[in-house]
Amino acid sequence: MNRNENDMLEKEEIFSKVLRAGRRTYFFDVRSTKADDYYITITESKKFTEEDGSFHFKKHKIYLYKEDFTAFAEILEEMTSYVLNNKGEEVISERHQKDFKKEYISDKSSSDEEIPSTENFTDIDFDDI
Fold first, then answer.
1. At 13, phi and psi to the nearest 5?
2. Whole-model pTM?
3. Residue 44: helix, strand or coil by DSSP?
4. In this model, does residue 114 exceed pLDDT 50?
5. Rounded distance, CA 105 to CA 74, Å?
6. 7-51 per-position pLDDT tens digit
7. How many Å from the N-terminal Cα to the C-terminal Cα in the chain?
8. Rounded CA gap, 34 and 93, in Å?
9. Which residue intervals make up region (Disordered) (predicted)?
């Protein structure tokens, strides 16, 4: 089987769900192995807009096989419970607050110039390292 045929086989989803979450979209797909067993792919697609208005997507994919389902689900449940138990369900990121406005920090004692918040800094993603 050549690479093109292999790529075509991977694109055949047996069962799929999509979760749209702002600039991110998550694709959950059940796929079939060469031996006709099933596995799951989870793909995160994130939209990036350029200054000229054009955009591109960055995608990250994980493959999850049946032998890892139980451990994966247990750890995911443990992690989500930990976050919700310790921080609740309310999103506390400034940019997610309905009344959020970019604020500037001003320290009149040392300088009269305004310093922009770190909200303008670039978010660096190290997922592919």
1. -85, 140
2. 0.59
3. strand
4. no
5. 43
6. 555 556 799 999 999 889 999 999 999 999 999 999 999 988 888
7. 30
8. 44
9. 103-129
pLDDT of residue 95: 62
pLDDT digits (tens, 9 = 90+) for 72-85: 999 999 999 999 99
Q: What are phi and psi of 38, to 5 degrees?
A: -105, 150
Please state, in angstroms and rounded to a whole number, the distance separating the CA atoms of residues 90 and 50: 31
Amino acid type, 112: D
Place of tokens 């955009």: 55
Pairing label, strands 55-65, 15-21? unpaired
Q: Which domains does the chain have, with CATH numbers?
A: 3-70+90-120 (3.10.450.700)
Residues 29 and 40 sit within 8 Å (Cβ to Cβ): yes
73 DSSP assignment: H
DSSP E strand boundaries for the chain = 15-21, 24-32, 38-49, 55-65, 104-105, 115-116
Structure tokens at 49: 């807009």
Runs of H (alpha helix) within 1-129: 3-10, 69-87
Q: Give the integer Cα–Cα distance in Å for 99 and 55.
A: 27
